[in-house]
Structures are given as C-alpha cells and as structure tokens.
Amino acid sequence: MIALITSVLAITLRAGTSLIYATVGEIYTERSGILNLGLEGMMLLGAVTSFATAYYTGSTWRGLLAALAVGGLLAALHAFISVTMRANQVVSGLSITLFGSGLASFLGQRLGPESNNYYLVGMSGPRFSPLVIPGLSQLPILGALFEQDILTYFLYILLPLSWFYLYKTRNGLDLRAVGENPQTADAMGINVVKTRYLYTILGGMLVGLGGAHLSLAYTPGWTENITGGRGWIVIALVIFAMWNPSRAALGAILFGGINAVQFRLQAAGTTVPAEFLNMLPYLMTIFVLIVMTWWEALSKRIGAPAALGKSYMREEK
Amino acid sequence: MRFVFEKRQSVSRQALVLVPVGSFFVSLLLGAVLLLASKVNPLTTYAAMAHGAFGSWYNFSETLVKAIPLMLTGLGVSIAFRMRFWNIGAEGQLVWGGVAAAWVIIFLADVIPPWLLLPVALLLGVVGGALWAGGPAVLKATLGVDETLTTLLLNYVAILFSQYLYYGPWRDPEGYGFPGTVQFPQFAWLPRLGGTRAHVGLIFAIVAAALLWFVLNRTRWGFELKIIGENQTAARYLGINIARHIVWAMLLSGALSGLAGACEVTGISRRLQQGLSLGYGYTAIIVAWLAQLNPIAVLFVAILMGALLVGGDQVQMMMGLPASVGIVLQGMLLFPMLAGGLFTEYRLRIIRAEKAAPVAEVQP
Q1: What's residue B40's pLDDT?
Q2: Which of these, A184, B86, B263, B343, could form a disulfide with B148 (CB 3.0-4.6 Å)?
Q3: Which of residues 94-133 of B touch A (CB under 8 A)?
C-alpha cells in the first residue's frame, strides 16, 4: 500500500511540475495587476520551441533557454498591449492563446527534419530523465520527492523562494502594492508601468518553462496540443492557491493526482468510459471555483489583487 | 520630448474604420515575415490563399461554409461581450447544439412526422446551446463565479461528452469503426444552396444579424446591456436588474451558438461525428472583437475569417504548407487591432521637452 501511494505521488509530481511552474508564473503576473489568459498558447509555444532547440543542439538546457525566451516575448507582447496600450486584458490574453497555439502547430510542421517532411511529430530528442537520489528515494512516501527530473527538483527551491520574495522583501511588497492599488503605489514612488512589465515577463518565462517540461520531460517529444488545456487549468489553480506561491503546489498536486489516478484506473480495466475520467479535472476546477467564490463572499477576501485586470492611467487619477 | 495620451472629446469615427483595416494589413505583413523565415514566398502564398477562398463561385461557397458557423457564434458572443460578460464557451455551446439536434433525428424519427423533424432538431439545438450557456450565467448572476473560466472549462466537458457519444452508444454499428453516428435520413438534411455545400444557415445568420442589430440598437433591453457593459455601478443606480440581464443575454448567446452546431450536423456532416467544430467558438471571439460587436459587421468579418481558413487549407494542398498559416494570421489580426483601439478614444500628443518642462512643474 505504501509503495502504491509512493508511486502515485511520484507520477502526480511529474504530471504537476508543468502546472506548478505556470501557476507560480501567473501568480507573479496577476500580483502586479495583469491578468494573462494567454498561458495555453505560451505553454504550447514554449513546448515546441524548447523541443526543437534541444533536438537540433542536442542540449536540453538550450531548449530551456528557448522556452524562457519565447514565454518572455509573448508575455512582453501582452504587457505592451495591456499596460502601454491599455487594451482589454481578457481579449489580449485570448489572442495570445490563439496566436501561440496556431504558431506552435505551424512550427511543429515546419521545424522538423526534411526526412520527416519537416514534421516534428514522432521525432525523439534529448530529454530530462529522472535523477534518482540514492538513499532518500528509498524513504516511504517521501521517496517520491527524490526520483524526479531536475526541473522538479528546482521547484523545491523556487516555491519557498517565491513565497519569501513576495512576502518578506521590499520588492515583493512593492509588487503587491502595484496589484492592490496602483494609484497609491505610484504616489509612493513605485514605477507602476515598469513593475507590471517586469513581472508579466518574468511570469511568462516561468510559463514557458512549464511548457518545456512537457516536451522535454513529462511526455518527451512534440505532439499537437501537447498541453491538453493545462494553460486554462493553471488560471483556476492561481485562484485555488489564493495568489500565494506556497499553495501553488497543493492545487497542482491535486490536479496532477486526478491524472495519476486516472492512469491507474484505466490500467486496472475500469468500465468507466475514458471520456468521463478526462472530464474530471475540468469539472473539479469548476467545483473549486464555485466553492472559492462562495468562500470569498463569506469572508470578503481570499487575496485577489484588487486592481487585477484593470489598466492604470496616471492622468485619470 | 514626451508622449502624452489625451482623451478625445468623442470616439473618433475615422479611427473606428482605419484601425481594423490597418490591423488586417499589419497582420499580413507580420505573416509575411513568418513565411519568409520558413523560406516561402509570401506573395505566392497569399495569392494561393486568396484564390482558394475567392477564386471561383465554388471556392467562395466553401468560404461561406466556414463563415456560417463563425457568423452565428460571432453574433452569439458579441451579445455577451456587449455587457462585458466573457463567454469563451461558444465552442461547447455549438457542440451541444449539434448533440441535441442529432439526438432528435436519431431517436425521435419514429415519433415526429418527417416534415417536422428538421425544425424540431434545429429548435432543440438552439435550446441545447442556450442551456449550456445558462449554467455559467446563473453561477455568475447568483454567486458571482467568474464566467471566463466556467464557460471555457465547460467546452472541454462538452467536447468529451460528444466524443463519448459517437465513440460509444451512438456509434454507427455498420460504420466500420468510424467515429460517428449513422447518417441522418434525407428529409432531415438542412437544404443547401444551389449545388454547393453552403446551406440555409447563411439565411439564419443574416436574419439573426438584422434582428440583433435592431434589438441592440433600438430597444430598451439592448441599451441596458450596453450600460451594464460600460458602467456596472451606473447600471445599478439606474435600477437595471443586472443578474436577469446576464442570464437572458447568455441564453440568447448560447442559443445562437447552438443553432450553429445544429446547422453543422444537419447541413454539412449530416451525422454527429468527430471534427464537428474546428475551433469556431474561439475564432468567434476574434470575429466579434474585430467587428467591434456590431452584428452587421460580424457577417463580413466572419467571411474574412472563413477565407483565411479555406485559404490555409488551400496552401496545404497546393504548397505543402501547414494549414495553420490561416490560424496564425487570424491570431495576429487582433494584436494591432487591440493596440490601435487606444487611438479611437485617445489622441497621441508629442510634447517637446523644452516647452513641456516648465508646464510639468506646475501642480494643479
């Protein structure tokens, strides 16, 4: 039984890693008051470029760099449209998703080798394999934490660091101030525009990494729609985490867990149609959203940045 | 030198027209860069796309085939967007329209007289789409649950459910494993227009656009929707029942997408099968926004978007390029459009540093 729990937990973490990266990224973005709904497109583009880069250079690390760059660039575009041009953030995010997923599909059919008719699908390239840490990985249950790939290990640093940065440093305070009340932050001498650009781009880079984890570690290689809606689930996970990076892992593990259990059930030959199992994460997210909203109505606050999704214009004080 | 945005006295009419047209050309330019980077001549590619979409009557009718569901879903989401209700769920609402219509035709053929079967199927498609949109609307109106996420997540649920149906209990037993239901009887087919695949859905879309234009611009209800979209607080002070408007607008929004789905299954595939929607529900969002939520403009923008899709298919067949070229171009259309939207309400003023400096010192 312990062995079973350990193995389910290990799969859960593996499935949840990309979600955690993207969730932490989006938390930074939303904390600055910018809502980015372009995650699905950014993750897809991160996945295809990182795989293609790793495939041609033979280096997974260069693949990661490509994902960071692509995620950052798309986020910068979103920041430009929503911060500088003050356009509607919902529509801007959606067009990032449409553009990103269209471009990812295009690149997936153009960047491949000539022998494969320029398709990337079906090619295998370098990947991040699990690094089993001797000794620690033998622990019951906790051992699951120590048979992961390097990107998952990096999360063990990123999560506490992000929490510390957000709540215990001056920069974190400034960031939260900008998301809560840009007018006051501006009066305090914080550069609202710069802050929003900075954290939207930083967030986008982490989202790109989330995409890279899919194509370089979790399901190595490129397939159309490799994210399978993860970018959208992340938007819900941010709410679930109440904009706190230390809680980001909980939600991602819960959702990764549904995935893991589903594999187990299918392997065990369940009679429940696969489609219904696949619906679970989406229905769960809706359920969580309802509960969270209801809870917010009761206690008034769950931590949503007050200025989220609103553009700021100094002249309109 | 300093750049300052000044609010215009009134919305610039010129910018209202120039921005969408300019956006189209900017996206073509950006697309050309992408095509050049993948070592293809952008001019020949665009020429092939244009020919594929408009080169002959038949090609144009194929563009209409893609444009019809975009018109109906585009009209649907623009109602919701008027009140800044983010219905991203047109895709799922369309799928439910298709499922409901197929259910009527497959299971009620013995109960309903043949001449009535198609109308009932279309009607139930409308109801199916409306109800699927009604869920998120009620959640928003009563509890305040964010509609962007609920409508979007329900898309996946709807698509998976339809998959379950045509792979599972509704699958044609004589279909050699083909994922789809039996073909509908001929009397339940939606009539097509003169030897092409374009169907009567086109007329539904035109009528719907005209009605919607009237309702949104000439009735109290349409005016109230607009107020809610522009200023919720003002709407509340005016005594407008926001919750009720949300629910009704969403039911109407979903109904139009449901009609799109019902028309697709009865007019094009004539069965419920894989690939019922090719992301029409998402493209509808671009259609609505590019048309600036104007129902009549939605019709024309939908044709343009349909042309990009058909053109994309064409370059795949003729030049071996990925058909997603069309989708990339669609996605790129919105960026200049969104960025340019600022100029309809604001004017850019350049202030020379030496003149501006003393002015900036003065505090009101």
Answers
A1: 87
A2: B86
A3: none
